[in-house]
Structures are given as structure tokens and as C-alpha cells.
Design the sequence.
């Protein structure tokens, strides 16, 4: 299966995604009818684990969304299980150093880039969906699986040029909240020091030929991110958008009766 998010990024189509926290297949199917390009199934900040992620990945595939997963941590089992159930990309939180990213790549990419364990699984129809030799299958998933460390710590920021230069790193996802907290300026996104950090991350990615993604909590923030040069944006999370939409409708009705 071709990674449609990777294709859209290569064509500069400004793909738009959303975090998925509600753990509802029905909500996933609803998201697939809205025009979003990709979804990030959150194994870090929600109750979702690898076993249920398989159901949400299947639902995303069925409605035209590229399924990414944010892993619970950077351990080998956390990475391997989500890839084997079919995640087409992983967002890795709490990254602090190039050495940590080298371990992530080792777990997430097959030989010759990494040391990912090989086993037929849901990702390849248990060995029936991807024709060819073992090297052919490994080359396919090395090309189509996105490994995306988050830059959300001072450690990652200070090493961003080295991190993005690593083979096997496909792009960077900027978590603005945790990055600002790590910098000692929680939520102060207009601070020139924070703005300079965003410029540094974006410049490092593009100079290395890698894409850069950013979270935006509002439509204005998402549009500003695109205009700034970010290649893809993640807008809010499903639960927050559902609440906002329902509140808006309730307020509209109550204001007219």
C-alpha cells in the first residue's frame, strides 16, 4: 500500500491531519468524511493501545485517511507493535538526543537502515499483500513507513540539525506546548525565543530535505503554520472539535428561543 501522506508531502499539497483520542471507530469514520488527509492515533495521551489501534487503523484505511500513530514511548515493543498492525507512520514523543533517535530508527526501519524485526503481520496481509522477496518487502516498508520524531524538548531542539540528518528520519513533528514548557516559557508562543526555535527547526528540516509538521490548536494557527512554511499541520483533536461543534449548535439554538 502506498503512503498517501508521503505522496501529498512530496507534491507540496499541504496535508491536514487531526489527533484521534476518542477511541471510537464511528468517530474515525466520521473524520474520514470531512476532508482531513491523515489522522494521528494517540497512544501517548489517550487510553488507546496497540491492540485497539489495529481497529482504528483499519477504519482509517477504509475511509481514505492515512493512519499515523503517536507511540506511548520510544521502546522497541511500542514501536514494533504499531508498525505491525499497519501504522503508516509513527510520531515519537519525548525525544532528547540523536542517540535516542538512532535507537528509534533501529527499531522502526528494516535492514540495511535499521534492525526492525521481520514477521508477517496485518501490515502486509500476513505475508499475502506485498509480493516479492524478503528484501523487496523490507525495501517497500522502509520507503513507505514514516518515522517522525517530535521536537518538543530543549535537548531535541539543541540537536535538531544532527537529528534530521540521520538516515531513517523522514521528518519532524513540532509539539509547541511541551517545547515551550521545556524552554521555560510555557504557552508563550509569541516569545521571540520560541519563534526563533520554530525557525531553527523548520530551516534544519528543509536544509536536510526532510518535511516539518506542526500542531495548531485553532484554524488561525493552522493557516499561519502553512504560511510560515510548515509542510503539514495537525489541527486539534477529535474530542475537542466535537465539543466545540456541539457547544456552537447548542448556543445557536438557545440564542434563538
Sequence:
Amino acid at each position: 500500500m502506498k503512503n498517501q501522506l508521503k505522496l501529498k508531502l512530496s507534491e507540496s499539497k499541504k496535508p491536514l491531519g487531526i489527533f484521534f483520542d476518542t477511541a471510537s471507530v464511528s468517530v474515525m469514520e466520521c473524520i474520514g468524511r470531512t476532508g482531513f488527509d491523515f489522522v494521528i492515533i494517540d497512544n501517548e495521551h489517550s487510553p488507546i493501545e496497540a491492540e485497539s489501534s489495529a481497529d482504528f487503523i483499519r477504519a482509517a484505511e477504509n475511509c481514505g485517511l492515512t493512519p499515523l500513530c503517536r507511540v506511548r514511548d520510544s521502546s522497541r515493543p511500542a514501536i514494533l507493535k504499531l508498525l505491525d498492525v499497519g501504522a503508516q507512520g509513527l510520531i515519537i514523543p519525548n525525544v532528547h538526543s540523536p542517540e535516542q533517535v538512532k535507537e528509534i530508527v533501529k527499531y522502526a526501519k528494516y535492514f540495511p537502515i535499521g534492525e526492525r524485526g521481520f514477521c508477517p503481520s496485518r501490515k502486509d496481509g500476513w505475508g499475502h499483500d506485498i509480493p516479492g522477496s524478503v528484501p523487496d518487502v523490507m525495501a517497500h516498508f522502509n520507503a513507505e513507513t514514516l518515522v517522525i520524531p517530535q521536537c518538543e524538548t530543549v535537548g531535541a531542539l539543541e540537536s535538531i540539525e544532527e537529528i534530521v540528518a540521520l538516515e531513517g528520519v523522514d521528518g519532524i513533528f513540532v509539539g509547541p506546548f511541551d517545547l515551550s514548557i521545556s524552554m521555560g516559557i510555557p504557552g508563550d508562543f509569541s516569545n521571540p525565543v520560541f519563534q526563533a526555535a520554530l525557525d531553527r527547526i523548520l530551516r534544519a528540516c528543509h536544509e536536510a530535505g526532510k518535511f516539518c509538521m506542526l500542531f495548531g490548536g485553532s484554524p488561525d494557527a493552522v493557516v499561519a503554520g502553512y504560511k510560515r512554511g510548515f509542510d503539514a499541520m495537525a489541527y486539534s483533536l477529535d474530542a475537542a472539535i466535537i465539543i466545540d461543534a456541539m457547544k456552537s449548535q447548542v448556543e445557536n439554538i438557545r440564542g434563538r428561543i
Notes: The first helix runs from residue 4 to 10. The longest strand covers residues 146-151.
